[in-house]
Design a protein that fits this description.
The structure holds two protein chains of two kinds. Chain A is built from 17 helices and two strands. Chain A is mainly alpha-helical. Chain A has three domains: about 140 residues; about 230 residues, no CATH class; about 40 residues. In chain A, strand 1 and strand 2 form a beta hairpin. The radius of gyration of chain A is 24 Å and the shape is globular. The termini of chain A are far apart. Helix content of chain B is about 35%, strand content about 15%. Chain B has eight helices and ten strands. Classes of the chains: A mainly alpha, B alpha/beta. At the A-B interface, helix 3, helix 6, helix 13 and helix 15 of A face strand 3 of B.
Chain lengths: ~450, ~270
């Protein structure tokens, strides 16, 4: 039974990885895949992964246990530390893994017709399967070190798919913006990892009485809180939280199915996943939990305000996504564990459908109007009327300008840029001085 | 195809209705089959019933950016008696407008017809023409990143100007040619009508549309070029023949000529 379960869990990751290898290596060697073959390989890989995930789920339930850990071996060893590859299938990772595999498979089937005859057809499928494999590596990771690989793969494929139509300047610009935001926040994840290793000595997820295996906490509260804040920072980029969320509506540049799977369903929810995985840290450091609530609530309010004034459907859906992810963060910060998990799966399902339907908006609208027999009545602005009348124009302007976050970010970026150039100059001067001194030394007999 | 008020049909006429229904169904299926030949993703060897199911499925498929070909590939308009085109394989490329020159000696009917039909047909054709020759500027680019804004139009991705024209998916099989209006009328009548309708004449003289007249009395062809209708010498007067349209288009994705279909002519003679 154990061997069988381990096999299933490994298959969830290896089937998508195999698809990436087959597509990537063979096309590198000059093999040209037809549309049918490309879509079939990706479809088969993710169906296999989805069935394997379901089988692991059933296996774990039948076995009456809460998780399965599969040790895949060690990568390297430095002193007392060794980098362990391991997969962890439990109540948190399996719902994510099953859902992601099914959704990537469905999007693969959908895109076969949607991207038919498109020049980048193969590229889309390669990136989609790389993304799918990255998500599985991330959610099934037995430790944060390993999760980092998946985290980076997801970020990279996300940016590349935003820039899918690279013959136009805007998608590339917006892809770059998303990529920069990701990198900025990945620094948080990396710093958290370094600090974890420094203070705890290990980043594996372990069972310690919580709903599922989570990160260990540091002996001192300060370190735990620091790690918690860094993890929150990491998840704020991926999940488009205030004030970093400006990239999300701009990310709606790729083909509709990729927008649906990244920003409607899977990629956007990886931030909450990371926080759920480090639940123990949040429990131990109430200030971090409070910060999670504050960020989530601010994002929910911001997304709701800004979403109200959007005139195009994809920006509207992006802000709706943002609002829900903010609420999920609030739930996590308040100490709930299963509620956010269910919220994530429900929201991801409905939002990806909405984004997939968004190109048919006019058609749906006509259909609805025909059914009602007249123009669809406007909503009576229940929530908007709660704001004092004098404030409404300002709130409207605030929403229209998307909370001035872009201006703020530009100012911060310019400031950081100026600081970086000062440091660069200092660095060059010091280097020149040092080099000059050593040259002087060498020239001396 | 849906039928209304069938219960109002007298009992005695029911068999006739059934026959008509069957006929319409067959026509729908064959029509769908002919449309399917242009879809790269449709099976090459499907039967007409399967083709009809396929096109009905495409119409409601969220993932389908090319539910139908629309007017793509349109190239000419034939304004004349239907006997002149009967039995020809027109490949869905013609606008067919019925007009009988034998009951319109002074061209009064034709004048009204030309003013209505020529601008409409020409503009449809030009929309496809320009969307094809410059899909970025005149067309709407690829449909895939389109984003509906304000319930009035589409943008590319997050923000762009409203995209006008037709998306690439709609025009990719189009052949950018100006509409050729073939009019079943005597050239002197057509000349007279063009003098009376300066807007139309300007449209034609400036080359937005091509016009040809086929004389009902002599069957000679006159083509409008260099400011006037001039006699046109066809390269060949032999019309190719094909046993049936399915035989002609089976397995073909590209444009085809317009041979006479023997099966259709035989049907007509039998009738």
């Amino acid at each position: 039974m154990d061997l069988w379960l381990s096999f299933c869990v490994v298959t969830i990751v290896s089937a998508p990885a195999l698809a990436v290898l087959v597509l990537g290596l063979l096309s590198w060697l000059g093999v040209r895949f037809t549309e049918r073959w490309t879509a079939s390989i990706v479809g088969a890989a993710f169906s296999t992964a989805a069935f394997a995930a379901l089988a692991s789920f059933i296996g774990i339930l039948a076995d009456g246990r809460s998780s399965v850990e599969v040790k895949l071996g060690s990568w390297f060893q430095v002193g007392h530390y060794s980098f362990e590859w391991s997969l962890l299938a439990d109540r948190l990772s399996l719902p994510f893994a099953t859902f992601a595999a099914m959704l990537v498979g469905l999007i693969g089937a959908f895109s076969r017709r949607y991207l038919h005859r498109e020049l980048g057809f193969f590229r889309f499928y390669l990136l989609l399967s790389l993304f799918g494999a990255g998500v599985q590596v991330l959610v099934l990771a037995g430790g944060l070190d390993q999760a980092f690989f998946g985290w980076e793969l997801v970020g990279l494929t996300s940016a590349l798919l935003i820039a899918f139509f690279h013959e136009r300047p805007k998608p590339v610009e917006h892809g770059l913006r998303a990529f920069l935001t990701y990198r900025l926040c990945d620094a948080g994840l990396l710093a958290a990892l370094v600090w974890l290793h420094h203070k705890v000595g290990n980043s594996q997820f372990v069972e310690q009485g919580a709903a599922w295996a989570t990160l260990r906490t540091a002996p001192e509260l300060f370190d735990t809180a620091l790690i918690g804040f860094l993890l929150l920072w990491a998840s704020m980029g991926k999940s488009a939280q205030v004030p970093l969320g400006g990239w999300l509506p701009r990310a709606m540049e790729g083909p509709t199915p990729s927008s649906a799977i990244f920003y409607g369903s899977i990629s956007i929810h990886l931030g909450p996943y990371l926080l759920l995985r480090s639940a123990h840290v949040l429990d131990a450091a109430p200030w971090v939990a409070a910060a999670v609530v504050v960020v989530g609530a601010a994002t929910a309010v911001h997304g709701s305000f800004v979403g109200r004034v959007q005139t195009d459907i994809k920006s509207l859906l992006a802000h709706a996504s943002m609002t829900q992810v903010g609420l999920i963060l609030v739930e996590i910060g308040l100490g709930l564990r299963y509620v956010p998990l269910i919220h994530i799966l429900g929201h991801a399902t409905i939002r990806s459908l909405e984004i997939l339907r968004s190109p048919s908006l006019l058609h749906d609208h006509h259909h609805l109007e025909r059914a009602v027999g007249r123009q669809i009545p406007r909503t009576p602005f229940h929530l908007e009327r709660l704001a004092p009348a004098a404030l409404r124009p300002w709130l409207y302007r605030f929403a229209l300008e998307r909370g001035y976050h872009d201006v703020l970010l530009r100012k911060v970026a310019l400031g950081v840029g100026a600081l970086a150039s000062v440091l660069d100059r200092v660095d060059r001067t010091v280097t020149a001085w040092l080099v000059g001194r050593s040259a002087e030394k060498r020239s001396r007999p | 195809m849906e039928w209304f008020d069938e219960d109002l049909m007298p009992e005695a006429r029911q068999p006739a209705l059934e026959e008509v229904k069957h006929l319409f169904e067959t026509v729908c299926e064959r029509q769908a089959h002919e449309r399917c030949r242009r879809f790269e993703s449709a099976p090459r060897d499907g039967d007409p019933a399967a083709a009809k199911r396929l096109v009905m499925g495409r119409a409601v498929d969220l993932a389908q950016p090319r539910p139908e070909c629309g007017h793509a590939t349109n190239a000419y308009a034939v304004i004349g008696r239907r006997e002149r085109t009967r039995g020809l394989f027109l490949d869905r490329r013609a606008f067919l407008v019925s007009y009988d020159p034998t009951v319109d000696p002074d061209g009064a009917v034709l004048a009204r017809l030309l003013n209505a039909v020529v601008p409409v047909g020409a503009v449809i054709n030009l929309e496809y023409y320009f969307s094809y020759v410059d899909p970025i500027t005149y067309g709407a680019g690829s449909k895939l990143p389109h984003n509906i804004t304000g319930l009035i139009g589409v943008m590319d991705g997050h923000a762009s100007d409203l995209r006008t024209g037709l998306p690439w998916q709609m025009v990719e099989i189009h052949e950018p040619v100006r509409l050729l209006a073939i009019i079943d009328a005597e050239p002197h009548i057509l000349r007279k009508l063009l003098v009376a309708a300066p807007a139309l004449a300007q449209f034609i003289a400036n080359g937005w549309i091509q016009v040809a007249a086929v004389s009902p009395s002599t069957n000679e062809v006159w083509h409008f070029s260099g400011g006037d209708l001039r006699p046109y010498e066809p390269e060949s007067t032999v019309l190719p023949v094909a046993p049936s349209s399915v035989f002609l288009y089976h397995g073909e994705l590209d444009h085809l000529g317009c041979p006479r279909i023997v099966a259709a002519s035989a049907d007509e003679e039998a009738a």
